[in-house]
Design brief:
Length: 188
């Protein structure tokens, strides 16, 4: 499906105060070891909810599809619909993990089937709201590989990166093998 370049509007005048963006870039470097450019890679919004819809409106066209893990934060499915896209849901199911701890998992085959020729983006919330699921490195790498294979964008909401349970470790999607080539964008 060809993209209409007239739909893309520059937003450089509304990205947040320069000093604040520089402080966010410094914080990101301290917490993650990743260097981000405050001029090209940080946009300040009124929360991750606004960031998510802004990101989707910027890259999703009517008729596209957006992969959404469910259960999900209440806005993800409606955000896709507001963009004119069709949400393709992948179910997270409760299961027992290592040590008998309850966790959440998806079927890798179901995820693969959710991607298709009209897939434009996948929304990834880790740790997940409402389940608390922290996506593992192999899961993030599978998602990245599917994004590369289908030339789509991973839009991540990592607002809960510091709220972890049961000794889980939050892995930023951009830090996993293949994720940088998956063109991920983070909110939160």
């Amino acid at each position: 499906m060809p993209r209409d370049p007239r739909r893309r509007q520059p937003v450089r005048d509304h990205v947040g105060a320069k000093g604040f963006r520089e402080a966010l870039a410094a914080k990101t470097g301290r917490f993650t070891g990743m260097q981000v450019d405050p001029e090209r890679e940080i946009t300040v919004t009124c929360g991750s909810t606004e960031a998510m819809i802004a990101a989707l409106l910027a890259v999703v066209d009517p008729g596209d599809e957006v992969v959404v893990f469910e259960p999900f934060y209440e806005n993800y499915g409606p955000d896709a619909v507001l963009c004119g896209a069709t949400p393709r849901f992948v179910t997270l199911r409760p299961t027992l993990g290592a040590g008998g701890l309850r966790t959440w998992a998806y079927d890798p085959g179901e995820l693969r089937r959710a991607f298709g020729p009209r897939t434009r983006a996948v929304i990834l919330n880790t740790p997940n709201n409402p389940t608390g699921k922290v996506f593992s490195r192999p899961e993030l790498e599978q998602i990245a590989a599917l994004c590369v294979e289908h030339d789509c964008l991973a839009i991540t909401d990592e607002i809960y990166e510091h709220i972890l349970f049961d000794d889980h470790e939050h892995l930023r999607s951009r830090r996993c093998r293949g994720c940088a080539s998956a063109r991920s964008r983070s909110t939160g």
